[in-house]
Amino acid sequence: MRRQDIQLRALARNGDIGARLEVGRRYLLGIEGFSQHSSTGIDYLTHPSVCDLPGARILIAECLPLDELLLLGQQESLRKAALSGSALAQLKFGTYLLTHTGRETEAAAYYAHAAAGEACAARALAICESVSDSERLPKILRLLTDDKKENGCAIAEFAAREAQTEGDLPRMRLCVHAAIGLLPKPTSAISKLVVAMVRMAERTGESLQDMPVEFVQASLEMQNGQGNPDATYTLGRALSGIACGCLQPSSLAESPNLRKGTALLLRAADAGRDEAWLHLYKLNSDHRCSVANPQMARFFLEKAAERGQAEAQRKLGALMLREAGSITESEQAICWLYRAAREGDLHAKQLLNSLVLPVSGSDQEAKVAVEELDRSDPWLATRLRLARHFGLTKLEALAVDPAEGKRPWGLVVGPNPFIVQIRLAAPRAIPALSDEALADLERAVTLFGRSQRSGGDSEGDLRRRSLNQRRAFERHNLQESMFFATAKSTVLDSFRVGPKWAFRARHTLHLALAA
User: What is the four-CA torsion angle of 399, 400, 404, 405, rounded to 10 degrees?
Assistant: First the structure.
């Protein structure tokens, strides 16, 4: 560095305002013995001693291109320089305003002020007055780029990232569309913005409007190649003919490619996009589809269910229950349906309801009666609560062992030792339809477990329990139909065998699998 340059820096550091402005200018431009270093130049020109001077703001606005000003966060300096009368600053600030939706009038006003001193501003103003809203920004950025005044693509890219941070989809769409008009093919940065825009449009339920589908697909392809799971998942759905929210596949991919789409969905699922497992199930379970594979479909459905998707849990539970041939299989199926119902799945709740026999009377009347009975015979009262919650027959209610039959999702009744016929004595699984049912089941386990640990037999055998129940009902004037379900052996048998249950609940089952 020359001696006079060292002296100039010394003067600037000692508070000389003119020297500080000059050093800042030279750093911004990289001239007269100073290497270009924009951040250092900004530091000199934003020092408290000069930051309020119009000259300092104008230097910042005129010495740096617009995209660099934006990256350095100098929007306010640019605005103040434009208000100070700098034609070049007015041109730049008007362009920045144009990257915002709804600020076209303000931008045109700045172009009009700058037109006297900047020929490019006059042409930008003419464009503002003659073209549609969607084409205004692309044409002006093209004008600035062709005149070597600005990097139009970098400006659009910055504004799009800013819009993404703010969650402003219309502005992001405007800026990405402008960038596309300046590029023959997507760059890595722009393709990443396109993927983010597609995801935002999917979340908000908006469209991409006139975004070129070939550019969108090329961006998705590029980001997929770079390991972006959002791009992989979106492209997989588009190629498989699956809509992404309100975005139709035709707006994301030029033509379907089912095999490639399925492969991409599998990659997305493996990368943690759990929703892809359910899409894979639907594709592989459709016999009309070229990639149909029933065994793989079941595997994908199980994966989706394990990842906590209520729809998958409901469908897997329904399929397993339809095919169940043993109590173990029924329990597994009900467990999946219960998990789906806990997530608010209405079809799963209806399927669970189909497994519980109805009882008559109001819940409030039954509650009052049981509370009164609880004072004299808590064991019988507990059995009656379970009978009403789980739709038990009289024999099931008096014979069930709550501690042995309790499950996280409900109750398994049986096998019943008091029935001679093996088929009628077989156990059956009954789901809990409410939190209250599970709470009462937990209390029953505690009560009966305490009695068993103490070695006592407070209830006696089944004959004694039946006699106590009959006398208690006579004493309190209770109807058995309020607590005990009534069902023929064929009906009870249908709850134990999946195909029989599926026939009885065929309408509910069809809705659950079709939804």
Answer: 150
CA–CA separation, 68 and 151 (whole Å): 9
Beta-strand ranges (E) seen in 58-174 are none
Cα distance between the two ends of the chain: 76
For residue 415, say if its preceding peptide bond is cis, omega within 30 degrees of 0. Answer: yes
pLDDT tens digits for 116-149? Answer: 889 999 999 999 988 888 889 999 999 999 988 8
Considering the domain architecture, whether residues 281 and 324 belong to the same structural domain is answered as no
What's the number of domains the chain is made of? 4
Instruction: Count Cβ atoms below 10 Å from residue 446 Cβ, excluding itself.
Output: 13
Mean pLDDT of the chain: 91
Identify whether residues 148 and 251 lie together within a single domain: no
Q: Strand runs (DSSP E) across 267-402, as ranges?
A: none
DSSP assignment letter at 407: E
- Which residues, other chains included, contact 334 with Cβ-Cβ below 8 Å and sequence gap of 6+? 317, 321, 352, 355, 409, 410, 429, 431
Cα 124 versus chain centre, distance: 42
Q: Are residues 19 and 142 in the same domain?
A: yes
Has residue 100 been placed in a domain?
yes
Site of tokens 């409410």: 434
Give me the phi and psi of 373, to 5 degrees please: -70, -25
187 belongs to a structural domain? no
| Contact criterion met (CB below 8 Å) for 121 and 150 | no
> DSSP assignment of 182-222, as one string?
T-SS--HHHHHHHHHHHHHHHHHT---TT--HHHHHHHHHH
Could you tell me the two tokens for 400? Answer: 């069930």
DSSP code at position 410: E
In this structure, the dihedral spanned by the alpha carbons of residues 76, 80, 83 and 89, taken in order and rounded to 10 degrees, is -70
| Span 313-342, pLDDT tens digits | 999 999 999 999 999 999 999 999 999 999
Per residue in 354-383, pLDDT (tens digit) is: 999 999 988 899 999 999 999 889 999 999
Same-domain pairing of 350 and 397: no
Asked whether the CA dihedral 467, 469, 475, 478 is positive or negative, the reply is negative
440 and 481 both lie in a single domain: yes
Domain that residue 472 falls in: 363-486
253 & 301 share domain: yes
Same domain, 385 and 325: no
pTM equals 0.82
45 shares a domain with 11: yes
Q: Is the residue at 479 inside a domain?
A: yes
Residue 170 is assigned to a structural domain of this protein: no
* SS3 at position 406: strand
pLDDT tens-place string over residues 415-453: 776 666 666 678 999 999 999 999 999 999 998 876 555
- CATH code of the domain in which 241 resides: 1.25.40.10
Q: How many CB atoms lie within 10 A of CB 147?
A: 11
φ, ψ for residue 201, nearest 5 deg: -65, -40
